[in-house]
Amino acid sequence: MMKRLRRNQEEAADASVRLLTLPASPLVPPQGLRCQLRAATGAGKSLTAVHIAERLRSERTLVLVPSLPLLEQTVAVWRREGHGGRMVGLCSLTGYEQPVGLRCTTDPAELVKLTAGLKRVTVFATYASVGLGHLEKAHRMGLPAFSLAVVDEAHRVSGAAGRPWAAVLDNTRIIADRRLFMTATARVWALKDRDRERAAEAGVEAAELIASMDDEELFGPVAHDYPLGKAISDGVVAPYRIVCVDVADPVLQGLEQRGADVRSLEYRGARLAALQTALLSACAEWDLSRTLSFHHLVAEARAMSTGLPDVARTLWEQDPALHPNPELVGTTWLEADHTPAQRRAALEEFSELVRREDGLRLLRHVLASVKTLSEGVDTFACDSVFFADVRGSMVDLVQAVGRALRTTPDSGKVATIVVPVLLAAGESGEDLLTSKAYDGLAKVLLALRAHDEAAVERLALP
Q1: Which end of the chain is flanked by fewer CB atoms within 10 Å, N or C?
Q2: Mind telling me which GO cellular component terms the entry cites (predicted)?
Q3: How far from the centroid of its chain's Cα atoms is residue 389's Cα?
Q4: Is 282 in contact with 412 (CB distance < 8 Å)?
Q5: What domain range includes position 164?
Q6: CA dist., res. 32 & res. 19, Å (int)
Q7: What does the alpha-carbon distance between residue 192 and residue 308 come to, in Å, rounded to a whole number?
Q8: 451 within domain boundaries
Q9: pTM listed for this prediction
Q10: CA separation, residue 118 to residues 88, 144, 336 (Å)
């Protein structure tokens, strides 16, 4: 039996089905029918998509996602809702890594064979498989058109029209009667002078070089928009607070005063130690139990995790009343090269606060990564996000914040977004308006404001 939808999901499903219902005429428009479902992170887009597919009686469904963790998670949602027919994965999961009941391949010919002659089939594919041309090759080998393509995290296919993933927008390359584009962070692109110059040189319209989500020819009209502020007001996602941690580290400040190379091991080590102290201090002050730490480089995420136990011990020895015994502080890190089994084990330890090695119950856990967990992956247990590096696009920042916003009904959860500020010598919190040290905080706030102004306005409420 399918799970009952919440009101926001029901409205989204109804609106999407209306726009994706084929006309009475048997002829499908050349570009197919298209629409967008925009909803805040954690608002239940994946579940809504299953209901949309069922209501449309889609017999050949394609589900596109950006990563293997999200693919596994999405397969579980569709299976849990009783979606029938064979499920096939077009991705790099092999052997024991495959979810139960999902046959995976990266061979277009095998994909055609696995789906041939079936009344109902669902193909789950990663954007990487699109970039490598596997789906296009399969169509050329006889793979029939899909009745519905669900494009999750659809902001990924916006941008330069020449990107490999842009094939998702072209119905002559990936063929589908209907397309449902889902995202929490719609991207609208503006043409730059160099785009117009390139267009003039190529003899085409400049707009053809950019795939922007306000282009209804490419992405269809917005069927439903459920912004973050509304989702928070409705209790669908957790409210959040932003904690700014001023860090005045004498070692790091001394290196900066001496003009140390910021790429040197000495400087990076001092910076990391300051960040580790800031993270654990924020956990202690705000009673945070499960923190996702986001970094710019895999090496930094690994170093954050491996060095955290020593810092935890130092802080405990300095103030045992504030900081817990370091044995009760768990830490792991994840990168794209980790296997699905390794990812599942790390996430299980993170969510259950139980150390894998000996079953010890933990008080808190820090899971460090770059982008492995920043997009789409469910992390309901996460109560906080730590920005060790405030880099990437505004979409990247909002997606990272979204990891802490997922919640369950009546949990009372308040997500905490921790932004460390590394102050230069002589600076203090009073220099907020003039110091470059606060640029990271400003960028996070601007990203959230661009995503949903109402959600940021809530931060100013008493």
Answers
A1: C
A2: cytosol
A3: 16
A4: no
A5: 7-226
A6: 11
A7: 44
A8: yes
A9: 0.86
A10: 12, 11, 34
pLDDT digits (tens, 9 = 90+) for 393-450: 677 788 888 888 888 777 888 999 999 988 888 877 776 666 777 787 888 887 777 6
Residues forming beta bridges with residue 90, ordered by sequence position: 105, 125
Q: Give the 3-state secondary structure of residue 318.
A: helix
| Of residues 340, 343, 377, the one with CA closest to residue 99 | 340
Amino acid identity for residue 165 in this structure: W
Q: What DSSP letter does each residue of 225-288 carry, written as one string?
A: EE-HHHHHHTTSS--EEEEEEEE--HHHHHHHHTT--TTSHHHHHHHHHHHHHHHHHHHHHHT-
Task: Note whether 360 and 307 are same-domain residues.
Answer: yes
Residues 6+ apart with CB under 8 A from 323: 280, 284, 312, 315, 316
Strands 178-183 and 148-151: parallel
Shared-domain flag, residues 217 and 339? no
User: Which residue is associated with the tokens 């580290």?
Assistant: 249
pLDDT at residue 68, as a whole number: 85
Burial class of residue 201 (count of CB atoms within 10 Å of its CB; 0-12, 13-18, 19+): exposed
Confidence of residue 59 (pLDDT cuts 50, 70, 90): very high
Strand stretches in 133-257, DSSP E: 148-151, 159-160, 178-183, 210-211, 222-226, 240-247
Q: For the chain, what's the residue count?
A: 462
Same domain, 89 and 183: yes
Element (H, E) at 79: helix 68-80
User: Cα 18 to the chain's mean position, in Å?
Assistant: 28
pLDDT (mean) for 346-360: 87
